[in-house]
Amino acid sequence: MSKQQQPKKAISPTREEDYPEWYQQVIKASDLAEKSPVRGCMVIKPWGYSLWENIVDALDAMFKASGVKNAYFPLFIPLSFLEKEAEHVEGFAKECAVVTHHRLEKGPEGRLVPAGPLTEPLVVRPTSETIIGDSFSKWINSYRDLPILINQWANVVRWEMRTRVFLRTSEFLWQEGHTAHATEEEALARTRLMLEVYAELAEKHLAIPVIKGRKTPAERFPGAVDTLCVEAMMQDRRALQTGTSHFLGQNFARASSIRFQDADEQERYAWTTSWGASTRLIGGLIMTHGDDNGIVLPPRIAPAHVVLLPIVRNAEESALVMPYVDSLADLLKKKSYGGRPIEVEIDTRDIGGARGWEWIKKGIPLRVEIGPRDIAAESVFVGRRDRDHREKVSVKRARFVAELTDILDSIQNTLFERALAFQKTHSTMIDEKKSFYDYFTPIDKEKPEIHGGFAFSYWCGDAACETAIKEELGVTIRCIPLAGVPEHDSGPGGCICCARPSPQRVIFAKAY
RNA sequence: CGGGGCGUGGCGCAGUCUGGUAGCGCACUUGAAUGGGGUUCAAGGGGUCGGAGGUUCAAAUCCUCUCGCCCCGACCA
């Protein structure tokens, strides 16, 4: 009987015990972010922000490689702009923060009160189609001005009722791309291209397997003609959209008067697209790879790849170990992985075993312990975050340096394969209504266990069926998969709800 | 906006029914021991108990008002 029973896992509760609470605890333990005094807003701490910066760098490079240029537009949008596109108003009006005054004055009891009302209220951007559209209308006169390919990295505000750090916050960071084209085909191609970019970011960098698809009219971006998305499965088997790309047709061009004179001398409306990904990706990362000891970061976007943990008992050992550690750090930093120099942390804090655990919880890919014994053997003691925390191996120092990038590749691949296997395991084709309902109904209704997954089932295309299922089960159509998903390309069948003929299966799931 | 709950050192909480002037765990600081692991012992710093008013010799505790937050629901590309 140990007087103090050590928890077997660093995070309590475990995923199995209480997934939403596990998520909160992991964020706290990993030092990524914390809640702020402002309701629904988060403080992103250095470890979390560095992670975001790496995501930004990866995406930004892909955007630029596809010809997109960055620009910046105002935080404030005149109220009248938002009113220009009818569906857009519907979709966003309810969740907007509105600026109505431009000054503060001393009020009674020394309190500051808003003064100087604005003639036209300003909306804090929930998205920027309208204000960017206004610029586009001025920039575009001729078909020779097209295409225009613009992206902005920005913060946006959506006054959500219920918030969760990274997944749904009142303010979040994202990028929004906006393009204008002379032809429908070209705009459609761009919509598809950017979806590919998001899929590549998710799979190659974040090691999150995704399914590419199209949203149903009910789930579409307000004002869009077509919304494409990439959907991932979290470890509670719920779906999370990790990127979205919209074909806006000429809707926003009409609303903002984005017109050009074509080669045939006709005046035409431009075809526009918009596409975005946000700090929500970090939530997806946590819920895809995290375990009961904290987050697990894919090496390609980890803020640091390796932490060196000197094992010293006294000044003499320190004098022996530290030069060895510093020289190893120098060697490692000269290498690079995924186009980025290897980032090395050296943690010399004398806080006992808590030191190693902190890095496990923070999800750093590799922990390297170095003590007198390793130096005598010219080796290092290495622990991988994708393996059990007790599984640590002694490796010759030279070999570790030489094989570092292979090890990181191995971790990156393991995470992706593991997540892909999980997604496959919890994806099923369901053709019977009862099975479908069983699949999405927890055994214990009081305290629902993790259940369900991706159900590939037929849907007739009727919004009434979609709504019925949403209301009865809380399950929605995440997407109509694009070609190439085997479960989708399985011929026609009968709608899971009404049994009417349906050409294809769609993905039903509970969603974030 | 409806239903429920909670505001006590940085965090998590006890104390409130039965008023007597604040306590526990973690974290933090210092010292010592330990040393391939969330170690141990000792000493220590930090709170006008969300705010205002009232009752009382005396209020974290009782009464009134008020502010804020959380959870469930509605809401959510």
Q: Which properties best describe this structure?
A:
RNA-binding, 34% helix, 27 strands, globular, 14 helices, 512 residues, alpha+beta
Beta percentage is 25-35%
The value of Rg in angstroms is 26 Å
Task: Please give the alpha-carbon distance between the first and last residues.
Answer: 43 Å
Kindly state the number of beta strands: 27
The whole-number mean of residue pLDDT values reads 91
Describe the sheet with the most strands. 11 strands, mixed
Break the fold down into its secondary structure elements and pairings:
Blueprint: H1 19-30, E1 33-35, E2 42-44, H2 46-65, E3 69-70, E4 76-78, H3 79-82, H4 86-92, E5 98-106, E6 112-124, H5 129-139, E7 148-157, E8 171-181, H6 184-205, E9 211-214, E10 226-233, E11 239-247, H7 251-256, E12 259-261, E13 267-269, E14 271-278, H8 280-289, E15 306-310, H9 315-333, E16 336-337, E17 340-341, E18 344-346, H10 354-362, E19 366-370, H11 372-376, E20 379-384, E21 392-396, H12 397-425, E22 427-429, H13 433-439, E23 454-458, H14 463-473, E24 476-481, E25 493-494, E26 501-502, E27 505-509
Parallel strand pairs: 3-7, 15-18, 15-19, 22-23
Antiparallel strand pairs: 1-2, 4-6, 5-6, 7-8, 8-14, 9-10, 9-24, 10-11, 11-14, 12-13, 16-17, 19-20, 20-21, 23-27, 24-27, 25-26
The structure holds one RNA strand of 77 nucleotides.
